[in-house]
C-alpha cells in the first residue's frame, strides 16, 4: 500500500468546492496529503472541513480563474507562504452551450481562459517550482493531473469552446510531459465520461438526450464524482511512477463502444 501513500505531500487543487474536484481533494487527503484549495469564494469551507476531519491540513486561497491577472499572481502567493507543492490538480472548469453558429465571443473567451489558459499558467508556474524542488528521488519531484474530457477526443454538440479547450488540455498534457518527465515531473490527465454534476444539468434535464447517452454507456449508469477518487490517488503517487503523458479515460466504457 506504500505505492498509494501520499504522506508528506502537499497538493494544490482547483475546482475543489464541489463535484469531481471536491472528491479528488478528499481522496488525496485520505491518502495522506495536505491540500491547498483554490476557490473563487474563500468563505466556502465545506471541503476544507472535510479534509481537516481526516487529520490533514487544508488552506484556502481565493482567485478568479477567469482572470489572467488573478491566476498569474496565484502561484507566487502560495509559494511565498512556504507551501511545498508536489501535486497539482487542475479540475476547475466552466461550460457554455450555444449552437456553434450563434456562439458569442465573450463565452468563447471565458471558456478558453478558464479551461485552457489557466491550466497552462498553473502548470507553467507550479511546474517551474517542481523542476527545482529538493526531493529524495529526483525522478519524482512532482506530478500534475489535468482534467480533460470525452470531448478531448469527440466534438460534442453545442460546446465548441469546451471541446476546443479540452482538446487543448490533452495536447498540453502530452507536450509538458515530453519536456518534464526526464526531470522528475510527470504530467497526466483524466478524461471523465458523463458525470451527474451541476455542469451537466442541461443534459440531465433533456430526457431524450440523457436517455441516448445512458443507452451508450456499457456500465449502465452515469458516473458519480466519487468514481474519480482512485484514479487520482494512483496518478498522484508512486504507483504510477512510469506513467506520464497519458490521458486516462474514466467513462464506464463509453470510448470503447
From TrEMBL:
Q: Which PROSITE patterns match?
A: ADH_SHORT
- Top-rank lineage group of the source organism: Eukaryota
SMART domains, per this entry? Answer: PKS_KR
Molecular function (GO) terms for this protein are: oxidoreductase activity, acting on the CH-OH group of donors, NAD or NADP as acceptor
User: Which parts of the sequence belong to the Ketoreductase domain?
Assistant: 9-193
Q: Which UniProt keywords apply?
A: NADP, Oxidoreductase
Q: Indicate whether Repeat appears among the record's keywords.
A: no
A biological process from GO: secondary metabolite biosynthetic process
Q: Which family does it belong to?
A: Belongs to the short-chain dehydrogenases/reductases (SDR) family.
Q: Specify the protein name.
A: 2-deoxy-D-gluconate 3-dehydrogenase
Amino acid at each position: 500500500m506504500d505505492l498509494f501513500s501520499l504522506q508528506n505531500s502537499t497538493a494544490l487543487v482547483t475546482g475543489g468546492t464541489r463535484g469531481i474536484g471536491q472528491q479528488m481533494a478528499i481522496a488525496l487527503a485520505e491518502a495522506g496529503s495536505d491540500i491547498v484549495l483554490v476557490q473563487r469564494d474563500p468563505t466556502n469551507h465545506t471541503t476544507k472541513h472535510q479534509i481537516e476531519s481526516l487529520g490533514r491540513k487544508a488552506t484556502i486561497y481565493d482567485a478568479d480563474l477567469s482572470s489572467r491577472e488573478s491566476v498569474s499572481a496565484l502561484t507566487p502567493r502560495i509559494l511565498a507562504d512556504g507551501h511545498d507543492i508536489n501535486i497539482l490538480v487542475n479540475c476547475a472548469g466552466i461550460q457554455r452551450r450555444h449552437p456553434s453558429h450563434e456562439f458569442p465571443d465573450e463565452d468563447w473567451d471565458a471558456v478558453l481562459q478558464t479551461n485552457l489558459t489557466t491550466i497552462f499558467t498553473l502548470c507553467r508556474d507550479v511546474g517551474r517550482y517542481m523542476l527545482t524542488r529538493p526531493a529524495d528521488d529526483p525522478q519524482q519531484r512532482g506530478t500534475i493531473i489535468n482534467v480533460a474530457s470525452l470531448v478531448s477526443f469527440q466534438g460534442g454538440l453545442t460546446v465548441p469552446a469546451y471541446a476546443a479547450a479540452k482538446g487543448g488540455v490533452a495536447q498540453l498534457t502530452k507536450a509538458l510531459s515530453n519536456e518534464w518527465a526526464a526531470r522528475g515531473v510527470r504530467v497526466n490527465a483524466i478524461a471523465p465520461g458523463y458525470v451527474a454534476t451541476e455542469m451537466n444539468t442541461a443534459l440531465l434535464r433533456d430526457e431524450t438526450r440523457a436517455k441516448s447517452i445512458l443507452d451508450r454507456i456499457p456500465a449502465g449508469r452515469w458516473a458519480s464524482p466519487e468514481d474519480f477518487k482512485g484514479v487520482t490517488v494512483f496518478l498522484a503517487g508512486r504507483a504510477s511512477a512510469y506513467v506520464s503523458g497519458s490521458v486516462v479515460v474514466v467513462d464506464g466504457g463509453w470510448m470503447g463502444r
